[in-house]
Hints:
Helix content is 59%, strand content 0%. By secondary structure, it is mainly α. The chain folds into 2 domains: 1-71; 97-188, no CATH class. Helix 5 packs antiparallel against helix 6 (173-188). The longest helix has 60 residues, at 6-65.
Amino acid sequence: xxxxxxxxxxxxxxxxxxxxxxxxxxxxxxxxxxxxxxxxxxxxxxxxxxxxxxxxxxxxxxxxxxxxxxxxxxxxxxxxxxxxxxxxxxxxxxxxxxxxxxxxxxxxxxxxxxxxxxxxxxxxxxxxxxxxxxxxxxxxxxxxxxxxxxxxxxxxxxxxxxxxxxxxxxxxxxxxxxxxxxxxxxxxx
Length: 189
C-alpha cells in the first residue's frame, strides 16, 4: 500500500481526534463543573500552604531578633501543674470515684466520697427494700449506661418500681431522670 503524504495523514489524524472528542463531549461537559471546583480548591489550598510557610518563616526571623519570654498566664493550667497538685494530696491518690467508664454518680460499696453536686443519702431512705426486678437485673451494681441499655426490656410497672426504689434509696438525679423519661415514652406508645 502506498503511503499518503505527511500533510494528508496529519489532517486525517486531526479529523479522527476531533470526532472522538466530539463523542466524549457530553460526558466531559458533565464532569467540567467538578473539574473546575477541584482545581479551584487545589489552588486555594496551595495558597493557604504558601501563606502558612511565609508566616512560619516570619515567626522564626522575629524569634531571632526578639527571643520569646517563657511566661505563663496565671489563669492557665497545664497537665504538669495538675500532676504536681495531685502529688501533694496523697489522700485521693489511686482512688477511683466511679466504677466503669460511664458510671455517673455510682460509687464502690463502702466509699465515703459523695459525688459532686449530690447530697449524701438520707439514712431513713437507704433502708428501702429493693423490688424483685432490682435483684433480677442487679440494679445496685448497674451504671447509668448499663441501666439505659436494659430499660427497653422492662415493663412500665417494673420501671415504676425501680423509680420508686431509686427515690427511696439513693435518689440519684440522673437515674431518676432516665427512669422517668423511659416511663413517659413507654406509656405514650
